[in-house]
Amino acid sequence: MSPDHHLDVSGTLCPVPLLMTARCVADLEPGARLWVVGTDPEMMVDLPRWCAETGHRLLEIDQEDGRVRCLLEKTRAGS
Q: Which residues, in sequence order, are bridge partners of residue 39?
């Protein structure tokens, strides 16, 4: 699945990765996909919860070698 946009939040800690993700998603059109990559392990909890609360689709999430990768899709329901 090819993302439309990339956001690297490496080196930041909660709540900064989530805030940066929300700001980036707000500027996207519905249906756009965004890869978020970071080093904060809390992203594994925070980003799925945020997607559930906002209605955006969490397409993929994994953690390897200290990096979290998350693929999101903006929906019309979410902001």
A: none
Pairing of strands 5-8, 33-38: parallel
Do the domain assignments include residue 15?
A: yes
- What CATH number corresponds to the domain at position 60? 3.30.110.40
14 a catalytic residue: yes
| This prediction's pTM | 0.91
More confident residue, 31 or 76: 31
In a domain, 56, yes or no: yes
Do 5 and 37 contact (CB within 8 A), yes or no?
no
Q: Write down the catalytic residue from 14, 24, 51, 70.
A: 14
Burial label, 48 (beta-carbon count in 10 A; 0-12, 13-18, 19+): middle
Structural domain that includes position 47: 5-73
